[in-house]
Amino acid sequence: MFTGIVSDLGTLVSVKPERGLKRLKIESRYPARSIALGASIMVNGVCMTVVARGAKGKGSWFEVEAGAETLKLTTAGRWKPGQRLNLERSLKMGDELGGHIVSGHVDGLAKIVERKNKSDMAGFRLRAPRALSRFIAAKGSVTLDGTSLTVNDTKGDEFSVFLIPHTLKVTNWSSLKKGDEVNLEVDMLARYAARLAERR
Q1: What is the CATH topology of the domain spanning 108-199?
Q2: How confident is the chain (200 residues) per 10-residue block, as mean pLDDT?
Q3: Fewer CB in a 10 Å sphere around the end CB: N or C, the chain?
């Protein structure tokens, strides 16, 4: 489980096709000794398993594998070397839950339809798939490319979020623009609430 609070901005250094998978090598500031084989790291909102790791200066590199389903349902199949990726390590008992409960299981893709810059902040309007938009509510939480954000408002299948200077600085959102797609995970609590409502 994760919180949607990005803890590092990693760099994708290589992509290697391998038996229907893609093996991704990512450099990060995480100390190499702190990354265990088999550990879960959320990469741009996608929960991935570490299959190799090593030291890189004061930081580290680690490798993960993206399977066919991940490549089909997320943006992972489009990632290119040099791309910056939002990283978060899985929660440990006693960690602060700063964002909201995030599983790292991407539900679909949201498309940026508008970006408005204001000084060193930015507002985004996105369009969600119709099947997922009903789980997105004003003042609720949503995870976009692994970033926990508060929904400002909704209109049909579209919704808006606002990013403060700190979030723009420590995530890949500073480079995102109109037309880009991001990995979307709806709030787990909203999903369960909708299911309960349906059963009633």
Answers
A1: Elongation Factor Tu (Ef-tu); domain 3 (2.40.30)
A2: 95 93 97 96 98 96 96 96 97 78 94 95 97 93 97 97 96 97 91 70
A3: C
